[in-house]
Design goal:
alpha/beta, Rossmann fold
Length: 405
């Protein structure tokens, strides 16, 4: 990237990116880290999970803005209200909001008479997630409430995209859905896929003793094969489908476990469902783990499965392929753009038999696992690193500036 005058970028996200580790938060930190020295990135985030004081993470400043810490839609409303009151004092060259965070920014800037470029970054399109949620099946009262708020927030996401200088999204699929559901002009949208840190997520030479310790942490014996899932325990991640598939997998392979890394509102329901289907003994629910442990856990699994029913992209699949692990995922959303079917993994319909057949094929063929893993690492190194993502975002920032001159 060529040297340019240092820009000040203000990024808005309700959840502090140094505390939460979802795809949105990871993208914010990774881009800011790689553009440090070229731009000054300041992230404005809600006061959630004890975040009260300014911090600097990998050269990125993170500033607390008052919100609640009750329930995301409520937290988000208070966060946006705070941001709208302080927007004049921020003084950035470019303003960028993620999903429905910072949706009030454009109106606040205009009210103050400030003509600043505003970028709306959309990950999975909220309206699409809302409509797809009807395919998931019976919902708990909490899930129904979450769905109601998702529809409400999608209206703010649409409004922010309409008023933005440019809109960024992570996949061709999400672009199509924004045009279809939000009526955003395609020429206004830029695709900048998420990436992976291929130096952090890579095949590691681990001693037998280390493998034993890591597998013990995962609740595995040395002789057990590992199916790994990493993500939030929420409806669209399709974990009920994985539980159904394990009924078939466990009849063919006895020494196998599905290790579930992540937390979320469905945990107890998933445990009950697995118990009801007599497969709970084949599941280990680890909850959240330390970030530094994640590459080691990827390295100690055999395959990675993401049975999502709706997904803008799927950072888990990028990390798995970077570690040279074969993947199995549902052929939905933006996933087919980052997984090469029968080369780096298998893409299946959201069907328990298809999912179980793909899992069994990989578990039963070590050579195939190795070849797909090798292909996957080459693929993400060439196309989907955070360096490439950061370079594309820098171009978007410069383009937005030129459009408002």
């Amino acid at each position: 990237m060529s040297a340019i005058e240092k820009l000040k970028i203000a990024v808005f996200n309700t959840q502090p990116p140094h505390i939460y580790h979802g795809g949105v938060e990871r993208r914010i930190i990774e881009i800011g880290k790689r553009l440090n020295g070229i731009i000054d990135t300041t992230v404005y985030s809600g006061t959630k999970s004890g975040f009260k004081r300014n911090v600097i993470v990998n050269g990125v400043s993170v500033v607390p803005c008052f919100s609640t810490d009750i329930f995301f839609p409520i937290d988000n409303w208070f966060f946006n209200r705070t941001v709208s009151q302080m927007v004049e004092r921020i003084g950035a060259d470019v303003y960028e909001a993620h999903t429905a965070s910072g949706y009030c920014t454009v109106a606040a800037l205009r009210k103050k008479g400030l003509r600043k470029p505003f970028i709306q970054t959309v990950h999975g399109v909220l309206a699409d997630e809302y409509f797809e949620s009807f395919k998931i099946g019976p919902l708990t009262p909490r899930m129904r409430l979450a769905k109601f708020f998702m529809l409400h927030l999608s209206k703010y996401e649409k409004e922010a995209a309409e008023n933005a200088t440019l809109v960024v999204t992570i996949s061709k699929y999400s672009l199509k859905k924004m045009v279809q559901l939000y009526q955003i002009r395609e020429e206004k949208i830029r695709i900048v896929p998420n990436g992976v840190d291929a130096q952090r997520f890579k095949p590691q030479q681990i001693t037998k003793e280390e493998i034993k310790q890591i597998k013990s942490r995962m609740g595995l014996r040395m002789d057990e094969k590992c199916i790994l899932f990493v993500g939030n325990l929420i409806p669209r991640k399709g974990l009920y489908l994985l539980i159904d598939a394990m009924k078939h997998v466990s009849t063919e392979v006895k020494n196998v476990r599905a290790v579930i890394v992540g937390s979320g509102p469905l945990k107890n329901s998933l445990i009950r469902y697995a118990k009801l289907n007599n497969v709970l003994k084949y599941f280990n629910f680890l909850g959240c783990i330390e970030d530094e442990m994640l590459p080691k856990i990827y390295n100690c699994c055999d395959i990675v499965v993401l049975p999502s029913l709706q997904e803008g992209q799927g950072i888990t699949l990028l990390e798995a392929q970077a570690v040279a692990k074969p993947v199995v995922a549902c052929k939905v959303g933006g996933i087919p753009e980052i997984v090469l079917h029968e080369k780096t993994g298998f893409l299946v319909k959201p069907d328990e038999l298809e999912l179980s057949e793909a899992i069994l094929k990989l578990l039963g063929d070590e050579n195939l696992r190795g070849k797909m893993g090798e292909n996957g690492r080459k693929f993400v190194q060439k196309n989907l690193t955070w360096e490439k993502c950061a370079e594309k975002m820098l171009n978007v920032y410069k383009e937005a500036l030129n459009l408002t001159k």
